[in-house]
Design a protein that fits this description.
The complex is a heterodimer of chains A (654) and B (340). With 654 residues, chain A is an alpha/beta fold. Helix content of chain A is 34%, strand content 18%. Chain A has a seven-stranded mixed β-sheet, with helices on both faces. In chain A, strands 2-3-1-4-5-6 form a six-stranded mixed β-sheet, with helices on both faces. The chains are: A alpha/beta (654), B alpha/beta (340).
Chain lengths: 654, 340
């Protein structure tokens, strides 16, 4: 990747020497949490998608709703990586940083690529704001930003000037700053303003003055770039659209994709959805989405707590609906006893964990993958259940359908893992055609399944699955509960041999699911070789890019990305056996690595990061390189990591 | 008559007994409650296929296994949440929740509160024996101060909760009391069933192993007349064979016991029980026992729209005029086309 400065002149002006246009650009908008950075980023994302560039985003916002203005902990940032090639991560180091105040500059400038562009609102660099950001001197003036290209001008004053005709108060006028900035960004990347203007008109339909003011600010920012005022420091840049599969596209984030996948899965099963939820970051968005989809047979219930959320969903499942509950780690911990009951009563249930940094309250708005043990093992007793992990926002759609399928076909709770990054990040999505989905309709028991009209709720089929019996069905009255139960009849029975037999049956049923999930494929590279990088969840993007780059340099490395965390695909052990080395990057201290070691007795090596930020590509490239630099049998040779990309946080290869 | 009324097969109490062996201690008050409930079912014309018993954990929570209906023995304290999910998923089911003082007021107090305030249509039977039975006799949230138990060897020191006061405070629209061996329990349960909304019934239950005869002060035959105040809608609040009654102390804004001479309760100022009077209901559930008799029967009954009806109406409004076309949903929002 290159910076956009000087070397990229868009190639439009006649007579220019041939310019290098980068294949991708990373822009980070950072400001106060009240500055509207998420909204700015979201609209820039949309305009990027409309321009046909591939993209990935990473919203990074504080846990506080409105942290005190101007403080370091109140900074909200939105990063977008877009380009004319396939994009799978939000980008490592930004090329452009838009800093709306000193605190935003201070907390984000360290990540900026050397030579990168800083656009700063000098109007916000008052003594007071510098103090809040703990700057002794004004960084815009003291030369401390010399290794970057600095473009500082008074965006605040320019915005106020631009919206003057609309007679807004100073506070309201300054609120248009984000639109002014967005206008400048649209100019830089040659974007059409029309969709945004239409959006603003819709958003402020009830207050046309605000719509007009925001549009004026947007146009003023755009015009500012157009005029010569910026001099030679900043150039327009045009990134060609990505060659993409033809069809209809939209942007989607993980929370939307999960919600849509649940609705699709329920339709394929022929069931209404009952969603029991309790507000928790970053999972609440799923409750919000589903609450607006009632016409799809969805009932949403905001319960009094996490426990009631799952228990109500289990109740609804028993009553014949698709019970769903969702939370993040702390809430999943509270749901643990309920999950155990769903395993014991063998009822379908989808549990979504949008993982965040832990333990305890941890990092509510930051991403992590540290709930894998909790998903696979985190209950009392021998309590197995399938675990499915989404790799990206759009993949979360398919994973949600898969979770529904497993739940209803195997009468079991299923854990669907996403994370804060997937939940909030957006990416373009080729809208699927539901006609292509394979239905898996559910059938409820209608007549007694035992001799002499006896109801046998725990009579298992060949796959070990018990029938689903809806209360209300005449003649099938029966009782279930959390106490160990007799074979077939389900009557209370905690005798020794029965507990052994039922524990074995529950385990065999879940283990057997491995035969009913797709075989593990290799995402990139060969099916055997020197090194395989095994990932799961949202590390897909950086692993994919790092492996792609390493392979481009001739390194014998492959990438396997596991969706079915439990049970693991039947062929995975054999597949892993084909590689000399296994590297497992995870945003935790090595949980999947341990599972792989346990299940296959392989020497899986960890690459761990728990900074609340996703891996950078460079971090994974560097880890791949170590397998070819410093170990015996190193046929790959010296492979330095891309040193133009500076890791922002430490990734420890322990 | 043109309307065709389907004739329900009449059931007998025996039809409501499941094939499971009842495992309560011999002499436990739960047996009497089970019998009363099995008598109620035919009298209300219940359909076994549409009747559901849901419980948490504890001695009382074994109840569903003994009813020949659908039953769900769930986890400690959480029965209200299961009841809510079941009822929202299928409002046609007639749900009886069985809980105890520990299950319903300690570990599950939060859920009980929310079930009552939401006013989900169901019957909540709280078996109050003022002790943890299944875990072998620890003090419960309704144990009286000074209750000796394995966890409180020198007597409990925490103040007990009043289940009916808790229910009213949580917004319950039906509150009643009975006791295990009472001949009136059937009628109290029938009244609870007739109430549309969350109906809360506190049933004093004698734990003969860990808290024997703790309610004998008013349940024993010898003291029944003097220590039981059976409330009947529209009737004066009389007890002790009509020689005593409950009147309002207008100065103190409390209730008081008055003597009734020659049956002239009006002259004594005895008040008439109005099940819709919430203020009096609050006073009745808080009457200090000893100075007053134990208020029993239907204390409060003033229905409001049920939660499941409100959810159904709200969801119907949200669904009105909208299609469930998945393809259209997936293609919603700002989209763009990539050509061949």
């Amino acid at each position: 990747m290159t910076t956009i400065l000087d070397e990229a002149d868009a190639g439009h002006a006649p007579g220019n020497v041939r310019e290098t246009v980068p294949e991708a650009v990373v822009v980070r908008f950072a400001g106060d949490s009240g500055d509207g950075m998420q909204l700015t980023g979201g609209q820039f994302t949309l305009s990027t998608a409309l321009a046909g560039n591939d993209l990935a985003t990473f919203p990074d916002f504080p846990a506080e709703i409105r942290a005190p203005q101007g403080t370091l902990f109140g900074v909200s940032a939105f990063q977008i990586n877009f380009g004319s090639t396939e994009i799978t991560t939000a980008g490592d180091a930004p090329d452009v940083l838009v800093a709306m105040n000193p605190a935003a500059l201070k907390t984000n400038v360290g990540a900026l690529k050397p030579g990168g562009l800083i656009i700063a609102d000098s109007g916000e660099f008052s003594k007071r704001n510098l103090d809040k950001a703990k700057y002794a001197a004004n960084p815009l003036e003291d030369g401390s930003l010399a290794k970057w290209t600095l473009l500082a001008f008074d965006i605040s004053a320019l915005t106020v000037e631009a919206v003057k005709p609309f007679g807004l108060g100073n506070k309201d006028a300054l609120r248009c700053k984000n639109m002014w900035t967005l206008g400048l960004a649209l100019w830089m990347f040659e974007r059409d303003r029309a969709p945004l203007i239409a959006w603003l008109k819709g958003k402020f339909a009830k207050n046309p003055v605000l719509a007009d003011a925001n549009i004026a600010a947007l146009n003023a920012g755009h015009a500012y770039g157009e005029t010569a005022e910026i001099g030679g420091q900043i150039k327009k840049l045009h990134l060609e659209p990505v060659p993409a599969a033809p069809g209809l596209y939209r942007t989607v984030n993980g929370a939307e994709a999960v919600s849509l996948g649940l609705v699709a899965g329920a339709q394929l099963a022929g069931l209404p959805i009952f969603f029991g939820g309790y507000p928790i970051t970053p999972a609440s968005a799923i409750l919000h989405h589903l609450a607006k989809l009632k016409e799809f047979g969805v009932t949403t219930f905001q319960a009094e707590d996490e426990i009631a959320a799952i228990c109500s969903a289990i109740g609804a499942s028993w009553a014949g609906q698709l019970g769903v509950t969702s939370s993040s780690g702390p809430g999943i911990a509270l749901k643990g006893e309920g999950i155990g009951l769903a395993v014991m009563t063998e009822l379908p249930l989808v549990i979504i964990n949008s993982q965040r940094g832990g333990p305890s309250t941890g990092l509510p708005t930051k991403t992590e993958q540290s709930d894998l043990y909790q998903a696979v093992y985190g209950r009392n007793g021998d309590t197995p259940l399938p675990v499915v992990a989404a790799r990206s926002p759009s993949d979360a759609f398919e994973c949600a359908i898969e979770a529904v399928r497993l739940a209803v076909q195997f009468m079991t709770p299923v854990m669907l893992l996403t994370d804060g990054y997937i939940a909030n990040a957006a990416e373009p999505w080729l809208v699927p055609d539901p006609a292509g989905f394979a239905p898996f309709p559910v059938s409820f028991l209608a007549v007694a399944n035992g001799a002499d009209g006896k109801v046998l709720p725990y009579k298992r089929d060949a796959r070990g699955v018990r029938p689903w019996i809806k209360p209300g069905t005449p003649g099938l009255m029966h009782r279930i509960g959390g106490i160990e139960k007799a074979i077939d009849s389900g009557d209370l029975d905690y005798s020794a041999d029965v507990h052994q037999a039922q524990t074995d049956a529950r385990k065999a049923k879940i283990d057997g699911i491995a035969a009913h999930v797709p075989a593990q494929a290799v995402s990139s590279g060969n099916t055997s070789g020197k090194l395989v990088v095994v990932g799961w969840g949202s590390t897909f993007g950086p692993i994919h890019q790092a492996v792609r780059r390493a392979r481009a340099k001739g390194v014998d490395v492959a990438h396997i990305h596991v969706r079915h965390i439990w049970p693991l695909p039947a062929n995975l052990g054999e597949l892993l056996g084909g590689y000399n080395h296994i590297l497992v990057p995870e945003m935790n201290t090595g949980q999947f690595k341990t599972v792989l070691r346990d299940q296959f007795l392989v020497d899986a090596r960890p690459l761990n990061k728990v900074s609340g930020q996703p891996f950078t590509i460079a971090e994974i490239e560097a880890a791949i390189a170590t397998f070819f630099d410093s170990i015996p049998g190193n046929e790959g040779g010296e492979v330095p990591a891309d040193d133009t990309q500076l890791p922002t946080t430490k990734a420890a290869n322990t | 008559m043109n309307a065709i009324t389907p004739i329900k097969p009449a059931t007998t109490p025996k039809d409501w007994e499941s094939d499971q062996e009842v495992r309560w201690c011999p002499g436990c008050g739960d047996y009497a409650i089970l019998k009363a409930v099995q008598r109620v079912m035919p009298e209300i014309g219940a359909d076994p296929a549409k009747t559901v018993f849901v419980s948490g954990i504890g001695c009382s929570s074994r109840f569903p296994y003994y009813m020949a209906t659908y039953g769900f023995h769930t986890i400690h304290g959480r029965a209200p949440a299961f009841v809510t999910g079941i009822k929202l998923a299928n409002p046609e089911l007639d749900i009886w929740m069985v809980t105890g003082d520990g299950d319903g007021l300690s570990i599950g107090g939060n859920h009980s509160m929310h079930l009552l305030r939401r006013n989900l249509n169901c019957q909540i039977m709280l078996f109050n024996n003022e002790i943890y039975g299944l875990t072998k006799g620890q003090a419960s949230p309704t144990s009286r101060i000074g209750t000796p138990s394995p966890s409180t060897p020198t007597g409990s020191v925490d103040r007990p909760a009043s289940p009916c006061a808790f229910a009213l405070g949580s917004g319950a629209r039906f509150v009643a009391r009975g006791y295990d061996t009472s001949k009136h329990l059937v009628s109290v349960l029938k009244a609870a069933h007739a109430h549309q909304g969350a109906a809360f019934i506190e049933i004093f239950q004698n734990c003969i192993v860990y808290n024997k005869d703790v309610f004998a002060d008013f349940t024993e035959k010898a003291v029944a007349d003097t220590h039981q105040l059976w409330l009947t809608e529209g009737a004066p609040m009389l007890f002790n064979k009509g020689t005593q009654g409950i009147a309002l102390d207008a100065g103190q804004l409390t209730l008081k016991v008055v003597s009734v001479e020659s049956g002239d309760w009006q002259a004594a100022g005895v008040i008439i029980h109005d099940v819709t009077n919430r203020s009096v209901a609050h006073m009745l559930v808080e009457l200090p026992f000893g100075a007053f008799p134990m208020a029993l029967g239907v204390i409060y009954d003033d229905p409001r729209p049920t939660y499941e009806a409100a959810v159904a109406a709200s969801d119907a409004g949200a669904r009105a005029g909208k299609s469930n076309n998945l393809a259209k949903l997936l293609a919603k929002g700002q989209t763009w086309n990539v050509g061949e």
